[in-house]
Structure formats: structure tokens, C-alpha cells
């Protein structure tokens, strides 16, 4: 199943919200500053998240 989409719980939007809340005051003042989000939930060999933050111009 490696590389296949994970379509079960937890919901992708809940995962994103948790990350946003955790990064408040660390990466941005408030998550309302975030203008673009791309999220993919798929099976991997090792559990985890990859978070990439870029400043939009």
C-alpha cells in the first residue's frame, strides 16, 4: 500500500488544523496568514509528516 492514498481517519483537514495550531507564534503570528495549502495523505514506509513552509511573494 506504500504510496497509495490513505482515505480513512484521521481526516486530512484535522491533521492540517493540528499542525497550524502548533505552528502559531513559532512560524507565523496566526494561521490566518496562511494563503495556500497543499495536503496529501498517503501510506509510507515510516509514519510521519513532511511540512514545507515557503513565503509567498
UniProtKB/TrEMBL annotation:
UniProt cross-references to InterPro entries, sorted A to Z: Endonuclease_RusA-like (IPR008822), RusA-like_sf (IPR036614)
Pfam families named in the record: RusA
Superkingdom per UniProt: Bacteria
Protein name: RusA family crossover junction endodeoxyribonuclease
